[in-house]
Every structure is written in structure tokens, then in C-alpha cells.
Amino acid sequence: VARNPGEVEFHQAVREVLESVEPALARHPEYAEAKIVERICEPERQIIFRVPWEDDRGVVHINRGFRVEFNSALGPYKGGLRFHPSVYLGIVKFLGFEQIFKNALTGMPIGGGKGGSDFDPKGRSDREVMRFCQSFMTELHRHIGETTDVPAGDIGVGGREIGFLFGQYRRITNRYDAGVLTGKGLAYGGAQVRREATGYGCVFFAQEMLRAAGDSLDGKRIVVSGSGNVAIYAIEKVQQLGGVAVACSDSSGYLLDEKGIDVELLKRIKEVERGRLGDYVQSRPHATFVAGGSVWEVPCDVAVPCATQNEISAEDAVTLVKGGCVLVVEGANMPTTPEAVRLFGEAGVRFAPGKAANAGGVAASALEMQQNASRDSWTFLQSEQKLQEIMSDIHARCYATAEEYGMPGNYVAGANIDGFRRVAEAMLAQGLI
Ligand code: NDP
């Protein structure tokens, strides 16, 4: 804490991992000898830079850019870029730290990193977003590469932003290194199912958890938070698998549609018109938008938080349990506060941590890297099948590790221990670096 003052989200993420890997540390004294914990908590490299840009009125703005290259024991740094006014070093480090173990859990050769900026794309024109992305990449390009560091999207960074970033990378370097960024458009090196992967993967994970308990998604009432990339495709997959997603949200309130959210309408509003969630009720008057309300007030069987960190407080957890919730699957990174996680445990609510449940996004990014490297492109069906297999493997690994350590059903322990062990073994093998 003294070494990283004020980085509260980073402290929270580190505490959560270290507490649950204690039994693994006890079994592996060689980790302590090689100071694996101390090394894993210190990023290999942290880059902070100035991002100057001009808005449509000619006003100059200065934002701050970040890239934290956290751990490359398993492969090139891999992790998204977040553009949101709340971004500062503590957020980027928490996300980068989580990313190390998430990427390890996928079983794919990718290390952990994360980046972003305190730039707020909301309300900005396409040209303003383009100028910002060009300025951001003008610095970032010297730090990334298909064998060093491969960024992708996150909050505020979707297909549009990745396109602008990739264009500027090509222009500066005069290289068509498709594998330098993932989440690209299908027309220029993107991969099928990358856009859908985090949301779909999360629902595949929920399906595996329910199956392990002799249950299924069929007829389940689902509440999702957020209405961005992860939320939209989680809702789509829920409906395809027989569940009913009745509510979702954004930072201004939540939408309730008892007939089930019309996902095509939601996509049109959010992806095409870049409108607000409240616009939905104009086309579906039976639905309601509750301005300023918390989506966790809506009773459900399954909750899928897909917005941002610490969005489920202890109070929300109590409300969810009272509303009949029996399963929580994190689509976002660290959306559940530690207190809420504890309350879910006490109430017997099954809980999947983001680093396992939302790993589908980065796994599909690794598949995009594979396709770029071999100049190949797979079909939607092939790619979705591969994603489903990966999610099923991650589930099996978390499940088995929790059993191995005498904590059956504890997916937090299973995910943290398995991810940590993989990275620790690679670090040990590679010596003191
Ligand atoms: P988007 O920018 O597409 O959507 C984010 C959604 O969350 C929006 O509806 C937004 O509402 C809401 N939101 C964001 N910040 C806040 C906040 N502070 N308070 C309330 N609502 C908020 O992002 P993604 O869907 O890509 O990411 C969502 C989460 O999933 C993040 O935690 C991200 O780290 C995680 N994730 C994403 C992956 C991906 O592949 N995209 C992969 C793995 C994890 P509004 O528009 O009003 O701001």
C-alpha cells in the first residue's frame, strides 16, 4: 500500500488474489523463495504520456495516456484500452493485474497488460474521437507490436476507436502488422466472434456452472447491468439459450422490459445511433426506463454485472438475494465489492469472478492474433465453437482446482489459484527477471 499510494482499486484487486492464493503459497515454498508475489505485484513497465488534441471548435485539450505492461512470462502483454474520465494509474494497474491471471486461465500464450486514458468519448463527434485516437497512437505505437504488446478495446473503446488507432499505427510505421491490435473490423484483419466474445463467453460460463449443478438457463430470469459491448452480447446469448433478460442499465438508470429485451433494437440504439438507453421506450412503450435507479432492484434468478468495477455494493447484494438471485456471473472486471462477494457466499449464491467468466473476450483476441499470424480467417460457427470450448475448459479448471484445494464450488479460489500457478511456474522457469 505504501509503495502504491492512493491506488485503491489496485490494492483491492491484489488483496483479493493474494488472500485466495495463500493455500497455493503454502504448498509451494519455492514461490516465496523466488519472491514471486513481490515480483508479480510490480509491473514490468509503466508508461504515462501526454495526449494533446483539438476539438471541433479548435479548442485544445490535454489528456493523460497509460499503458501498463504488467507481466510477460506467458506471452506478449495483452489487454484492452479504456477511455473513461475515471481512468488513472490505479484503475489501469488493477485491470492489468487481473488480466495476468485471466490470460493465464485461458491456457493461451498471452501475458497481461492494460492501458487507456481519462478522455471521455461521450458526446464527442467521430472526428474528435479520430483526432484523439491519432494523438494517443502517436505515442503508443513505439511501445506495442505483435510480439511485444497487443492492445484491444474496453470501456469507451470499440470497433470505431480500434479502427482509428490501427489506421494511425499503420501510417506512422508503414507496416501492415494486423496482429498489433485486436478487435479490428472484419474488413481489415478482424476475427469473427471477437465483438460478441466477452458477452457470449460469460453466458457460456453461466451455462457450465448451472450444468455442474444439474440445472440450465432455460426459463431463467436474468438481469444484466450496462448496455455496452459486453452487456449487449450477454443479453443476445441468454435469449438464444432460453433465458429471459428483462433488464439492463447505463450510468443514468435502468431499463425494464418484462417481455424480454429486444436485442436488435438495443443494438440499433447503442451501436448504430450511439444513443442512450432511455431511447428504447420510444419503440417499446410497454417497457420502462427508471432514471437514477439501480438495476439490482429488479428481482432475478441470475445477475450478470457488465458495466464497471464495484457496481454491486453490499446493499445491492442483500437486495439481489432477497429478489431470489442464485447465481452471479461477472461480465465486467471486479464489479462486485469484497463485502458483496462475502454476502453472496453466506447466502449460498454461486459466484463466478470476472477473470474466469469474462475471459472469452481476450481468448477471442488470442484467436484473432492466431488468424492474423497465419493470414487466415475462420467462420463464425468455427470461432463460436472454439470460444465455447475455451469457456468450458476454463470452467473445468476452476472447478477442479477448487476441489483440489478442498473448497468445492469456490470459483474465486479456483480461478485465482490456477491462474497464479501458471504464471508463477513460468516465472520460476525463466529465472530472476
Ligand atoms: P462499453 O463502453 O461498451 O460499455 C460500458 C457500459 O457500462 C455502458 O453501458 C456504460 O454506461 C456503463 N458504465 C461504464 N462505466 C460506468 C460507471 N462508472 N457507472 C455506471 N455505468 C457505467 O464497455 P464494455 O462493455 O466493453 O466493458 C464493460 C465491462 O466489461 C468493463 O468492466 C470491462 O473492463 C469489462 N470487459 C470488457 C471486455 C471487452 O471485450 N470489451 C473484456 C473483458 C472485460 P454509459 O454509457 O452511461 O457510460
Automatic annotation (TrEMBL):
Domain Glutamate/phenylalanine/leucine/valine/L-tryptophan dehydrogenase C-terminal: 191-431
CDD domains to which the protein is assigned, alphabetical: NAD_bind_2_Glu_DH
GO molecular function: glutamate dehydrogenase (NADP+) activity
Pfam families hit by this protein: ELFV_dehydrog (PF00208), ELFV_dehydrog_N (PF02812)
Annotated keywords: Oxidoreductase
Domain of life: Bacteria
Transmembrane parts of this sequence: none
SUPFAM superfamilies assigned to the protein according to its UniProt record, in alphabetical order: Aminoacid dehydrogenase-like, N-terminal domain, NAD(P)-binding Rossmann-fold domains
Family as reported in the entry's similarity comment: Belongs to the Glu/Leu/Phe/Val dehydrogenases family.
Subunit structure: Homohexamer.
PANTHER family: NADP-SPECIFIC GLUTAMATE DEHYDROGENASE 1-RELATED
Protein's UniProt name: Glutamate dehydrogenase
Gene name in the database record: gdhA
